[in-house]
Design a protein that fits this description.
With 248 residues, the chain is of the alpha/beta class. The chain is built from eleven helices and eight strands. It catalyses: D-glyceraldehyde 3-phosphate = dihydroxyacetone phosphate.
Length: 248
């Protein structure tokens, strides 16, 4: 059985003081969670959140990582920096990184390999735009994105990563794939992993990342292929996020 994982992607929200308050409110609400609970915060919040989650079941994640250990890469953070700051997870290849900051399938792979080498668990984002779904390219696209991201990893390493399926058309729009659509596409991703890495496909956890919230979390989490969620807006309020964590 794969243990579910619910990860909040705070995006560019919350100052350090706001982050500390949010985590302090969240901790007692998710203390009995039956899943892994992660908050992926802006880098300026790492210190405050790392301190606030001490002694809780909440883990810290970052929203990006560079593939080099150090160098002249202004504004970037290395895997070693994230590790020392207390991060255990890192989101890689989110659609907003791809859309606004030039992320490609190839750089997603470089970042993934750097994260894994440093002992971080990557949350690798894949997904299609609306026009790509309507043209019938969803399955081919997500399989390609997935296998490109994982290139160079062993089956043992792949088994430990997290993949987040985020239909780009459902992010921040209030739209969501149906439970069955999400389950079907996540099944395609799992079979793509199986084609290259065999039984690792049965261990890799695949989240749904398209506007999961308290209203739809229960139905999505009943689907056999869905192992959790990468949560955007609903992760910014402790009560809402806790309801998703409990699949209510």
């Amino acid at each position: 059985m794969r243990k579910p994982i619910i990860a909040g992607n705070w995006k560019m929200n919350k100052t350090p003081s706001e982050a500390r308050q949010l985590v302090q409110e969240l901790a007692p609400l998710v203390a009995d969670a039956q899943c892994d609970v992660v908050v992926c915060t802006p880098a300026v919040d790492f210190a405050a959140v790392s301190e606030a989650i001490r002694g809780t079941n909440i883990k810290l994640g970052a929203q990006n990582v560079h593939w080099k250990e150090s160098g002249a890469y202004t504004g970037e953070l290395s895997a070693a920096m994230l590790k020392e700051a207390g991060c255990e997870y890192v989101v890689i290849g989110h659609s907003e990184r791809r859309q606004y900051f030039g992320e490609t399938d190839e750089t997603v792979n470089l970042r993934t390999r750097a994260a894994v080498a440093a002992g971080l668990t990557p949350i690798i984002c894949v997904g299609e735009k609306r026009e790509q779904r309507e043209a019938g390219y969803t399955d081919t696209l997500v399989a390609y994105q997935t296998l490109t991201a994982l290139t160079g990893l062993t089956a043992e390493q792949v088994a430990k990563v997290v993949i987040a399926y985020e239909p780009v058309w459902a992010i921040g729009t209030g739209l969501t794939a149906t439970d069955e659509q999400a389950n079907e596409t996540i099944g395609v991703i799992r079979e793509a992993v199986r084609s290259a890495y065999g039984d690792a496909a049965d261990e890799v956890r695949i989240q749904y990342g398209g506007s999961m919230n308290p209203k739809n979390a229960h139905g999505l989490m009943l689907q056999p292929q869905i192992d959790g969620g990468l949560i955007g807006g609903a992760s910014l309020k402790a009560e809402d996020f806790s309801k998703v964590v409990h699949f209510e």
